[in-house]
TrEMBL record:
Keywords: RNA-binding
Alphabetized InterPro entries for the sequence: S4_RNA-bd_sf
Gene3D superfamilies per UniProt: RNA-binding S4 domain
Molecular function terms from GO: RNA binding
Pfam family, one: S4_2
Organism in which the protein naturally occurs: Prochlorococcus marinus subsp. pastoris (strain CCMP1986 / NIES-2087 / MED4)
Protein name as it appears in the record: S4 domain
Length: 58
């Protein structure tokens, strides 16, 4: 699953455009590092962080 799809699936964003803005602004971290590629493929066990929330891709 791609990062932007994951954010929509977890209701962090309501649209792909909103996901793009959040990701490009550096507000999303994957495995502790800022991620700027919205098409990044998540693999099992990846930790996605937004603000103080941490979600694990399973």
């Amino acid at each position: 699953m791609k990062l932007n799809q994951f954010l929509k699936w977890h209701n962090i964003v309501s649209s792909g455009g909103e996901a793009k803005i959040l990701i490009n602004s550096g507000q999303i971290k994957v495995n502790g590092e800022i991620e700027k590629k919205r098409g990044r493929k998540l693999v099992k066990g990846d930790k996605v962080m937004f603000l103080k929330s941490e979600l694990i891709f399973e």
